Amino acid sequence: MLDNILGTVLENGTFTGASFLVVTAVSLILGGVIAFFYTRQIKTSKSFAVTLALIPAIVELVILLVNGNIGAGVAVAGAFSLVRFRSAAGKAQEITAIFLAMAVGLATGMGYIGIAAIFALVISVLLLIMSRFFDKKEEGYRILKITVPENLEFEGVFEDVLSSFTDLHEMTDVKTSNMGTLYKLTYRIKMKQGASLKQFIDSLREQNGNLEISCGYPSTEGSEL
Predict the structure, then answer these.
(1) CATH for 140-216?
(2) At residue 14, what are phi and psi to the nearest 5 degrees?
């Protein structure tokens, strides 16, 4: 029975009208499953979610058409080599989802719909679980940005205030601004339970000469892929 589930629905590497409809339907369903699981935990653009849903069916059709035909395979490879994609650099999770969708398309294109379904479900669930597990470590952290004048010895000057209002804090970035007349300091902090954000910022303003200060949660919106 296991061999039947994991076997191919294609006969001798060729497909019929019925088998084509079956593998295409499975590809679309599994593409939708991948997109659903990905968007449940990871914030992404609508276009990327639609792309994930359609990639398996597209790859499946290509594999069906070039299956056993070397000339067609070379022609398809040449056609795809002419395509240039201009988009934002993808995050690791986005690249993983794309490779998953392509792998599912390859499997369904060769008729292994059982393998494709099992693989898509297992990896999608693992992606969801691991994303939630690792994201918990970032809960509660904020990004604090403080602007200071160039003549201020900023190293350690905010230590007392940060220790009073935060449980954890670390400087992650320093850069100059306004032709070198200002410094912009970036901290990763975790506020103490019940600490007043207004009092925290007011205390920092007394130290930095009332220059610009911002404090907020890390943005979860990446560049649209």
Answers:
(1) 3.30.70.240
(2) -110, 160
